[in-house]
Structure formats: structure tokens, C-alpha cells
Amino acid sequence: MRRAGTVLVMGDGGNWIDPLSKRECLFDQRIVDYYHAVEHLYEAARAALGKDTPEARALAEQLKDHLWAGRVDEVIVALHSHADRLGRPRATDGSEHPRRVLANNVGYFTTHRRHVDYPTYRRKGWPIGSGVTESAVKLFNKRVKGTEQFWSIPGVESILSLRALWLSQDDRWTRYWNTRPGYSKAA
User: Fold this and answer.
1) Structure pTM?
2) Which of 79, 96, 101, 104 is most buried as measured by Cβ atoms within 10 A of its Cβ?
3) Nearest to 105 by CA among 166, 45, 178
């Protein structure tokens, strides 16, 4: 990370990510995973217009188009409109109640307004989804988790670094070993 020109933090927008990232000063740009954000749009549309209605699907698709185009303010206005129509959540409303779902999603997109600028991210060649990272975590986990595997912190950091070299598939593995005494082809 010290040599990276830009460090991105990608996640689902969970409320634990931002405080951790801010505390550790880990990033230049925070990005909410596009596919998680779209899930929120579908959830909000179902809350606004009914679970399996064509109207809910049409609203979700319209909101998704706005989000993709970078018009998050239009998303927030639309969600506010439906939330106002249904009224404020009541203390007795559970987490799945449409009023609560809409209020939560208005808050989600308002909080993450600066983290969902997908046209800018695409223009810069940045990822908008966390799938690649999630896949990489699974690959790393295969190496270090399992029965009969016990690691010290230095040991697991070393093996994960080696695993990263191997998985990079860009000659880093070979370059690394060619610089080690006893392994170098030149030796």
C-alpha cells in the first residue's frame, strides 16, 4: 500500500467499514460495491410498491439506471418521495416493515452519496464491485484455514505474501525466488 498511487476501500456500505477505514487512514477513495447498492435499490422498490409487483421492478430498474449514470440525488429524491408517501417508521415497525426499509435506504444512499460516483470510478478504471477481492479472500483462505493448520502471526503473514506472489500470475513469483540466495538461477 505504501507504493500505491491510489488506495481504494471497497465494501458493501456496512456501518463498521467507514469508522475502521477513517481510524486507520487506509484509503484515498471509499467505494460502495455497486452490486450491494443495487440490492438496496431493489429492496427499497419492493418496500415502496410491493414485493413481487411489476411496478416495483420498474422502479428498481429506473433507480439502477440513475445510480449507474451517477444521478444519486435523483435516487435519494425518489426514495424520499416513497418514504414520505408511506410515512415515518413507527416504534412498532420491525426491520422488514416497508416504512423502516425505505427510511434505512434513504439513509444509506444519503450517507454514501460520495461513495457511489460510478461514472467517475469507471472513467478512472477503478473497480465498482468487490467480487474480485471476495474471490481472492477465498483463495487465500484455502491456504491458511483448515484442520491441523496453526499459524503464528509472522508465519501466516509470510505464507500469505508468498500466496499473493503465486496468485498474481505476472511473474512476481519467479522474480521473487530469483532474488533469493540458493534459489537463484544465476547461483
Assistant:
1) 0.75
2) 79
3) 45
